[in-house]
Amino acid sequence: MSRAATERPVPGDVRAVVFDLDGVLIDSLTVAREAFALAYAEVVGDGVAPVDEYCRHPGRYLPEVLRMMGLPAAMAAPFVRESNRLAHLVVPLPGAPELLGELRRRGVGLAVATGRSGARARHVLDLVGMLPLVDHVVGSDEVRRPKPAPDIVLRALELLAVRPADALMVGDAPADLASAHAAGVVAVAALWGESDPRTLRAAGPDVTLARVDELLALCVPPDGGHRGSPRDTPDAPPVPGTTPPIHRPMG
């Protein structure tokens, strides 16, 4: 774990973590590349689909990416259709389910703020068994302005009833970090995904994490235990290297 020289201090009592989805919690890059190529072939026709250029816009809402690339908005529908058809190929990133389970056991509020639509995000999280591990999912179609604007992070915190000063945002794209900064939360760069580390560091994160489990060190309640009553948490194995918490009956 490393922190920038100009970092904002991490809250002493982190009450919520907002996650980007693709590349942070799930591995969906192969599906996204294939869906984009198929949508391009269907709508544009002949020629090589600019898949690599598309992949240089992680974290952003698809209609905005198509506009930025000068591509037809009509590509969105076949992209979504093909993404849904191939969704069974999406898998959780190693350690992500365990991380969410441990954070829930610690009483940390959890939300996903994604460049996907809300319906697509909830669907894929359900497919990989991670939907019960988060409190809220906010899609780019559910806010007025998608990333890099702060709206989606602020909406997630509103649903969690947590102040920006008490939260972190974890993302693997400059748009995620810009959204976090604009919302007033600590911006955490996740280097375990497919994004170029140099690009992420250039975006000015407050904290840079190389591994999924490093986030746990930032989310320890002040007493070292658990905040309040434990949540009703679906079973998830403990993160390697951590000790499962002991929940005592309340009397």
TrEMBL record:
GO terms for molecular function: phosphoglycolate phosphatase activity. Residues 221-251 are annotated as: Disordered. GO terms for biological process: DNA repair. InterPro entries: AHBA_synth-like (IPR006351), HAD-like_hydrolase_sf (IPR050155), HAD-like_sf (IPR036412), HAD-SF_hydro_IA (IPR006439), HAD_sf (IPR023214), PGP-like_dom2 (IPR023198). Gene3D superfamilies: HAD superfamily/HAD-like, Putative phosphatase, domain 2. It comes from the Bacteria. Residues 224-234 have a biased composition (Basic and acidic residues). GO terms for cellular component: cytosol. Pfam families: Hydrolase. Residues 235-251 have a biased composition (Pro residues). This is AHBA synthesis associated protein. The lineage of its organism: Bacteria, Bacillati, Actinomycetota, Actinomycetes, Micromonosporales.
